């Protein structure tokens, strides 16, 4: 059982950190004031169907105010999180995590300033960057190589382009592959975001996306249930005519099926996630992360299974066209 430990029957990120670095890392969420081409009008003003628009707030536009303001804002964000964490993890090391919106969607010079400001914060030893596949150029890859970028996160959600179009992703799976192959060729680890419970997708459809992960073999994946939030177009659809969502037990079943066929060398960065409590319309069960994670581990124990148990070990190509 590659990567499995005494707690989890899957290759957890914490296990990866311990094996590779011999220490614990904590991610500090940093808001760099980014927007998104799916919100600023370049592609759309609406955003993805599930996007609440929550994220960048007072930090937006700080680049124009100068490097000191950038540094001070990121510093304050990091320190406030460190204060909350210090009693539980006094000896932790930190990764600056740029998550909100599209964190390559600024001119290169400004990106460099923001990344440098994060890396200058005491205790931060690297950064992780979440972005869109269609917002990565060769110049971004060169920047990543020079800025202690530990990994880049790409939102794929699903390989089924018809459902991705419904989500208003505004790029297709080929666009994802183009960016992914560029990053992989540059030896930059990639983490891929996937969503379970997209209306119109069956378990078979979802597991085809997992099979695709085995083909491209990213550094890691993140899984979470489709969250329906107030104020989103998805939320409006749901309030007008509620549609079926996965129950907690069905979600756990799908995740365990996915883990069983997933390459055991792919690191699991997340198995569940929840939107803001005050905005979440459905499903409310996602708010109890501990219940979901315990349910996944219990299911794997009951099945006597683990990540990669049914993985097809046929040779895979390093590049996918």
Describe this entry's structure for a reader.
- The protein has helices at residues 13-21, 67-85, 108-119, 138-145, 161-166, 173-185, 203-216, 233-240, 248-261, 289-303, and strands spanning 25-30, 93-98, 124-131, 149-157, 190-196, 220-225, 228-229, 267-270, 280-282.
- The protein is built from ten helices and nine strands.
- The protein starts with 12 loop residues before the first helix and ends in an 18-residue tail after the last helix.
- It has a single domain, classed as Alpha-Beta Barrel (TIM Barrel).
- It is globular and about 50 Å long.
- Helix 3 (108-119) links the parallel strand 2 and strand 3.
- Mean pLDDT is 89; it is low at 55-65 and 315-321.
- It has 321 residues and is of the alpha/beta class.
- Helix 7 (203-216) packs parallel to helix 9.
- A seven-stranded parallel beta sheet has the order 1-2-3-4-5-6-8. The protein has a two-stranded antiparallel ribbon with strand order 7-9.
| Rg from alpha-carbon coordinates | 19 Å
Order of helices and strands: HEHEHEHEHHEHEEHHEEH
Tell me the CATH topology: TIM Barrel
Largest sheet: 7 strands, parallel
Shape: globular
Spatial ordering of strands, largest sheet: 1-2-3-4-5-6-8
Q: Averaged pLDDT, please?
A: 89
Give the tally of structural domains.
1
Q: What's the end-to-end separation, in Å?
A: 30 Å
Helix tally equals 10
Short description:
With 321 residues, the protein is an alpha/beta fold. It contains ten helices and nine strands. The chain is globular and about 50 Å long.
